[in-house]
Amino acid sequence: MTSREELSNEELSAKLTELSEWENQMSHTEKQLEITRLKKVHPLYEKRREILKSIPKFWYIVLAEGDEFVEYVNLDDLKYIEFIDDIYVYYPIADTDVSEDNFKDFSITISFAESELIPKQTVTKHFKTIFGEEGEKITSEPVDIIWPTDIEDLNPRAIKQKNKGKQLSTEDKKNYRAGMRSFFAWFQWTGEKPGKEFRNGEDLTNL
User: Fold this and answer.
1) Are 60 and 81 in contact (CB under 8 A)?
2) pTM for the whole thing?
3) CA dihedral (204, 137, 23, 13) positive or negative
4) Confidence class of residue 44 from pLDDT cuts 50, 70 and 90?
5) Residue 122 — pLDDT band, cuts 50, 70, 90?
6) Nearest to 85 by CA among 108, 64, 116, 54
7) Residue 5 in this model has a pLDDT that exceeds 80
8) In 3D, which of 52, 147, 35 has the Cα closest to residue 95?
């Protein structure tokens, strides 16, 4: 095999171009394989979703016993998590004609059953995967959720709206900081406001 030292600058440049083209082909192939996988497993996850809905407190057990989840939320959130009866991750590329450029975009739907602690509701949060020089990054659209009544005063968005740009009182600051650590603050997370929104939003999303 010809060593690199024996290649002229022009030859080396040509080889590097070939390598770059190969990497592009490999990237395209991996992308197509992932799209095919998402399409194939979609009906299976639909079936799994219905099975899990019939298992009482399935999601509470999974989340409450997961070491990582409890690191990202307030422990007080767990009594509301008990009423989650559906969590579903959906990739539009699996069954729609969306652009393949957005094949990693997805949504997470979370449903709460009726209870005295939190209203019955279903909330869908949408995510985009941004490809950059430093790798992939997830961003999201904020979405409204009805907070449990007994922690409604911790809702950061409600606190901001109440004060309308005014300086927060000591009590509001305390509540704001506590609310920013709540699972319910994750629904407003965008991934574009470091230090000013729910912490570890991308980590929680990827669990």
Assistant:
1) yes
2) 0.88
3) negative
4) very high
5) very high
6) 54
7) no
8) 35
Tell whether the torsion through CA atoms of 68, 60, 151 and 76 is positive or negative.
negative
Give the integer Cα–Cα distance in Å for 187 and 126.
10
Contact (Cβ atoms closer than 8 angstroms) between residue 75 and residue 64: no
On whether the CB atoms of residues 77 and 183 are closer than 8 A, the answer is yes
Domain ranges for the chain: 9-205
Class of domain 9-205: alpha beta
**Residue matched to tokens 């990582």:** 68
What totals of helices (H) and strands (E) does the chain contain, helices first?
Answer: 7, 4
Q: Model confidence at 133, in pLDDT bands (50, 70, 90)?
A: confident
Instruction: Find the angle CA(72)-CA(76)-CA(78) to the nearest 5 degrees.
Output: 75
Who has greater pLDDT, 96 or 159? 159
pLDDT higher for 68 or 50? Answer: 50
Alpha carbon distance 90, 107 (integer Å): 5
Q: Tell me the C-alpha distance between 147 and 127, whole Å.
A: 21
DSSP state of 89: E
Placement of tokens 């995510």 in the chain: 127
Rg (CA), the chain: 23
* Structure tokens belonging to residue 77: 């959130």
